[in-house]
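User: Show me a protein chain along with its predicted structure.
Assistant: Here is one chain, sequence first, then structure tokens.
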Amino acid sequence: MSIHLVRGDPGVDPVAAAADGIPDLDAELLRKIEQMAVDLAHLAGSEIVQQLGRAVTIRYKAVDPVKVVEQAAKTVRPINLFRDPVSEVDQNVERMIRMRLAETFPTHDILGEEIRDSSGRESDFLWAIDPIDGTTNFINGFPLFAASIGVLHRGRPIAGAIWCSASHALYAGIYHACLGGDVCFDGEALRPRLNPGIRRRLAGEPQAVPDVDLPWEVRKTGSAAIECAFVAAGLLRVARFERPNIWDIAGGLALVAAARGEILTYADRRWQPFSHFEPPAAPEGRIPELRQWHRPVIIGDAEGTSLLGAHHPHRSDDTLSH
């Protein structure tokens, strides 16, 4: 597959057409939001590159101290307990992003992975940010990680920018798009062209499962944001995410939509087209939060998403609540 950089028809403004009829949104604002997302992704990427390989402070969110003590008493190394790491770089990058957003879009809400901030603004615009997606890869020096910036308007992804440590161009760069626009890489629009001689393409899966009876080979990157960007750029045909967080995929879904890809989510015991994020039902006495959204998602071309959905047909909605 080759990817060509192109420029669109100067006589047509698809961004303006896409924004038409959406309250509080126009082409100028959409482009301003996309550019800010790109700037923030660049900021995050620069910080990540500077810190790569240094001895950074790391903690693990999923460690249960009681289990660690119990395992230690049994003289069993509790390696499997150390999941979902976060580094000081994650936290520092998110703080910098929040400061920049507060200067340019002070009324917009922010949903970040590392910092809980109940702003109470209740804005129609929400920035979903993941300062490092693929932190395990990052802290181990494995060069597959990303910084993801996604922007939602009333829950719908309208813009995204993902700094990726690897790309189709064999160097780090930013995939980005806004509603109605093209998928771009470092400011230039992309047009993937598939090699007709390739009979089996690639698919992203959350587990390295056998790809029996499916027309692709499975790859597990360790970064949902990278897999979204690679689907949008045509490097992966499809990808599936088991229990993603919004900040993992918000920016990526904007890219996939711009690439005219299909987005399916599992709800009401079936795969169905995705339109927007909304808070899941909360226990009595609690306020529903977007932070608790974790529904399975499939992205890719129409045929591929249909095949992958049919291969994962049976789930219980009860297991999807968090």
